[in-house]
C-alpha cells in the first residue's frame, strides 16, 4: 500500500471511516462548484466514488489518495492521479487532481499534496506526461497547476456537462528539468 508524506499531510489509501467526512466535502455546493455540472454528491455517491478510486489503484497502480492532516488525523479531501475518461480527446493521459474541504482552502495544502502526487507519478510510476483539467474560471486550480510547472495546452468542452475546460500539461522531461 502506497503512502506519501509531506510536512503537513499524509496521502494514503482509503478507509471505511473516510466515507462520511468525504461525503461532507462532496455535499458542499461551494466545493463542488467547479466539478462537472456543479452537483453535490451524497454519502452513497461518495462511497461509490471511493470504491472506483480504489479499483483504479488495483488496475492502474495509481489512484486518488485520501489526504489526511498529519497534526490532527482529519480527512481534508483527496489528491492523486486518475485517467480522465470523461475527456476522451486527451487520452491516453493521466490527470493530477484534488478536492479539499473548504476549511482547508487557502493554506497551500492542495499544492503540497499535488506536488507529492506528481512526484509519485513521474518518479515512482514512470509516467511520461501528466495533465490537469480545470473549468474555465477556476482560477485557484489554475494557480496550483502553474505552481506544478504545468502549462496550458488546450481549451475545450467537457462532454459530460458542456462546460468549457482548460487542459494543462507537464512532461517527465519538463519535470526532471525543474527538479533539483
Automatic annotation (TrEMBL):
Residues 9-180 form the N-acetyltransferase domain. PROSITE patterns: GNAT. InterPro entries: Acyl_CoA_acyltransferase, GNAT_dom, N-acetyltransferase. One of its GO terms (molecular function) is acyltransferase activity, transferring groups other than amino-acyl groups. Pfam families: Acetyltransf_3 (PF13302). This is GNAT family N-acetyltransferase. The lineage of its organism: Bacteria, Bacillati, Actinomycetota, Actinomycetes, Kitasatosporales.
